[in-house]
Amino acid sequence: SRSHFGSSDRIIPLCLRVVDHSTFWSSSASSSLRPPRLQPRHAMAEQGAAGHDGGAITGSQMQANLTSAKESRKRAELDAQLLANRIALLKQEEEKAWKKIEETRKRAGEIVELRKQNENKFAAKENFYKQKWESIRAAQAQNAMSRDKARAVRDQTREGMMQQKHANARNTKEQSQQCLLAKKEHEAQQRQANVERSAYLKAKKEDAKRRLEEDRLAQLEKFREDYEARTAQEELLRARTDALVAKMEKEEMELIQRLQNTQNVQRNAYEELEAALGQTSQQISSSTRHFPGGAAGSRAGAGGAGSAEPQPAA
Q: How much is the mean pLDDT over the chain?
């Protein structure tokens, strides 16, 4: 009883601990594996009083009471830690909510300011387009006046140009006849030059064709050698890759086997834990059922011993 109430000084620091989300959920998940709850402290006190009235309790009963007190203290510490984690999470969520509220208010103010700026811009743009339209209309009127003046000038200019064109046509006809004669002479000279140049180009083309054929054959030979070298290199790389794949497959099989062995060990550990928890529950329940008989036996043993030492109370 003293050991149970003396653990309250260790509950307070545990309440102040704050762990992350993974620790909180792992603690919540581990609570499902918690051993069954023992009797409350007032029930234990009643049993202790009954044992005290009936006689001194045995050593096994004392051990059971001590174990019950330790389990109750551990459960209280775990509940305090879980509550502290939940409180910390609730505070974090509240801070996040206030941050979102501040951001929303700030964004609303920005939107209102942006709307005012857009309205001012729209009004300025409307005024700009209005002034621009008035200037366009004034320019259109000025352009219409300028077009009328330009049309009169063009008519006069066209008449003078027609007269000049007729004079130029006569001069051009005379010049074209002279140019036709000169063109015929030039064409004859050009044909002769073309024949000579065609012969030269044909010979040059044949020579270039021959050189291109030689270059093509040399390039084909080079390509063939390069192809054979690359093929050999690819075969070597393929062999290395196959060896690496075989090695990796072997390593994969070994890792799979090791993982299966680890899972078997983990499963055995869970089974041992469940068996230990079940055995502890059975021992506690059996000691509770046989408590009156144990008290009578302890009285008989005390009467036979005569001067035996008194057993400490729970």
A: 76
Least confident of 101-110, 172-181, 272-281, 299-308: 299-308
For 2, 165, 191, 275, the CA distances from 176, given in Å and listed in that order, are 136, 16, 22, 123
In terms of Cα–Cα distance, which of 77, 73, 96, 74 is closest to 85? 77
H/E run at residue 1: none
| Token digits of residue 165 | 């064109």
What string of DSSP letters covers 232-273? HHHHHHHHHHHHHHHHHHHHHHHHHHHHHHHHHHHHHHHHHH
Token code pair at residue 219: 């390039």
In angstroms, the CA 176 to CA 178 distance is 5
CA dihedral sign of residues 43, 49, 52, 54: negative
Cα 211–Cα 212–Cα 215 angle in degrees, nearest 5: 90
Q: How far apart are CA 205 and CA 308, in angstroms?
A: 134
Reported as type and span, the H/E element at residue 2 is helix 2-5
In the numeric block, the tokens 């036709």 are attached to: 180
Residue 289: how many other CB atoms lie within 10 Å: 9
CB 19 within 8 A of CB 86: no
SS3 39: coil
Amino acid in position 194: N
CA 90 to mean position of chain CA atoms:
26
- Per residue in 60-95, pLDDT (tens digit) is 888 899 999 999 989 999 999 999 999 999 999 999
